[in-house]
Amino acid sequence: MKELKYILKPKSVVIVGASRIPGKVGHIILQNYINDGYSGKIYLVNRNEEEILGMRSYSRVTDIKADGIDLAVIAVPAEAVPGVLEDCGKAEVKSAVVVSGGFAEIGKQELQDEIVRIAKKYKIAMIGPNCLGVMDPRSRVNTLFLPSYKLAKPEIGGISFVAQSGAVGSTVLDLMAGEGFGISKFISYGNAADIDEVDILEYLMEDEETKVIAMYIEGIKRGKDFIELGKRITKKKPVIILKAGRTEAGATAAHSHTAALAGSYEAHEAVFRQFGFTIANDISELLYYSKIFASEAAPAGSRIGIITNGGGAGVLTTDAIASSRHMLLGELSEKSKSELKKVMPPLVNIANPLDLAGDADDRRYRDALTSMASDQGIDMIIVIILFQTPGADSRLAAEVVAMKEKTSKPMVVLSIGSEYTEMHKMMMERSGLPVYDSPRAVALSLEALYSYYKYKARFG
Amino acid sequence: MKELKYILKPKSVVIVGASRIPGKVGHIILQNYINDGYSGKIYLVNRNEEEILGMRSYSRVTDIKADGIDLAVIAVPAEAVPGVLEDCGKAEVKSAVVVSGGFAEIGKQELQDEIVRIAKKYKIAMIGPNCLGVMDPRSRVNTLFLPSYKLAKPEIGGISFVAQSGAVGSTVLDLMAGEGFGISKFISYGNAADIDEVDILEYLMEDEETKVIAMYIEGIKRGKDFIELGKRITKKKPVIILKAGRTEAGATAAHSHTAALAGSYEAHEAVFRQFGFTIANDISELLYYSKIFASEAAPAGSRIGIITNGGGAGVLTTDAIASSRHMLLGELSEKSKSELKKVMPPLVNIANPLDLAGDADDRRYRDALTSMASDQGIDMIIVIILFQTPGADSRLAAEVVAMKEKTSKPMVVLSIGSEYTEMHKMMMERSGLPVYDSPRAVALSLEALYSYYKYKARFG
Description:
2 copies of one chain form a homodimer. By secondary structure, chain A is of the alpha/beta class.
């Protein structure tokens, strides 16, 4: 296993190609380390500068007097990378993230082979080249050289997201951060010249900070090793996989993008399924599944309870659940029914879906949730809150978050709307409650959750 | 055909049950008319008040000296509605929106029958009871009695949205407004005691302000009439339909919601398909299809061109297109290829998808769009813009909007991300360019567009 720990949790970092010029890659990365509050030692290397942003700059890595540096972030032109890596090796640098492009992806395979040779000679664990690199909000390592105002900053959490492609990676990261997801690690590994998807998965499998792994891949280099790992990894934690190149046209496009040999998607899919991976068919599904798994609740069965303040939304959600492969609507117990009859106004029809009516407030939701949470006939709960109605407000959102903390049953919220709704969705999402914006998304996510835990119970 | 014009374009309105108390239905509706700038004459009726918000209040509708009022908005307790309607009839009021609940939906069928009888006697066209009513941003009629800060306000546009359920209706309306859609009419018709879905569709079919009809229904009352109308309506304009109660469990839930007899969904679906309706299977699809049809561009064929600044996103979109039923990736003409070779940097591989690379700016997009717009091998264009990249900014968004205005080919944007991206999506959406947030959504929407225009060319 490659030593990713030096890349993700470095005690010291050298930025090679650090720059004082705003907009330059070597400037953005340095700014990231400063702004994010990285607490380790930072060294800078730029052969033309003696000082950058008030910090000393060295001409070469070998000039630095330090007992081995954990990580070198390399942002220099491709042809300069071999020399820099040699210096890193001599200075006993333990790992490197090469963000520079200009290697195999534009046909320069020899140059890429050369840096791999150097990395191996000095036992440097290397991510890249041609990648965005890594982000770890806990250790505050961040090599993403994108304009920071264009990307939302993720909070600390349990999802590790692995993407070969930097663009898909940063896009999904932005979306996750914007929705209030917490991130454990983000790793964009580009050409995978040294460290590849199998190395990364092996690391994340053992990483205790990682509760869920989400990944976007175009091709798999080491098929056998991937299968070996696949057998073990999903027994420990859920892995969601979005593979591009599912169609012939897509595979052709993937080949010209990262030279990935996509292979037959059917064969890949069969392996993914066999080993309990959760397959995402679209970027949106990658997000749906990431957040439901991050909530870390395992269902005891597939019977769904629905609480709603909008009848129509309850019907549509019932349709979505009833059309799913494994799930069905649960039957309320006699105990629940008699409890609910006592506390609900007469117009509320005691059934599942439980339509609390358009004037439902936090109190009515609490009563409904209390019954469903203890009802033996309900395994997972969908709480539909239409915030356009008079009784739905921040108190209600807080009430639902509090209930989620009290029950061990998986619980998700469905809320649809713009600004006022978004505000409450964000608040609930940040409190660890998965929130969705369509009945389809809810049904897909609960189905994925159920299927994974069923696999795990059987083989885990 | 019922006279919906008095409801949607009234020259005078009487609000029965107008109130000075904030939060009351009769207060919110009055505030709507004042805040939205309704320019017709407003009368108020409240038997306990002589003046409300500085306006005169009458005891009864018959006290008003006016030569017939176009619309009465009735927000009084259910049992008072028959008397109010009698008064409206005597005062020659032409139409009524009864927002009050407490009729057939809670078993009071007789009370409902009575108001229908009165409405028929006086030839009052009546929407409701138990409905949110109507909104028309052009005439500024707005009977939606929901807290205004919870709902985004829609702009004027071509989509008319019809929803039996008030909650689903207001939710989708909020979402449409929040995304920057323009609305022609919003009609929530509740119990459909008098005016029903067939009447509404007949009106909207002829309404020149309506370019697209989107509807949410739970049941259809007049099946034969619906079929008769179905044969004609889609030849004039696209109709998107989301029907709840697709499954047995859903149909049961729908019955307890609006007493709708959902009937066999398969039978409904067959009719919808036969008559060229666009079927939405989820609330999200209702939105996807509404905006692509609102852009009013008809494709000449099913060949797709993809322009992207992210390779991975291009591959995923290629997969989505190639997995669709009718669409395929177009082949760039020799002319396009040689044009593009001249203007593109060497690293850009001239192919479809056309990956402009992560540093693409407005100029590179313009060149790419110019070629694709005039290429005879491309019928529809997908423009992927990942705004996290350095070159993607407001200039680029403006450039794409300008191109959309120059070409007659359907053109959509795919952009994924949070705040910075959302800002640009909103700007493009408001300029009439449909923007989507997943490859799946793009593929579904283009497929729906293509299928509808194919139907129309054949039968229209």
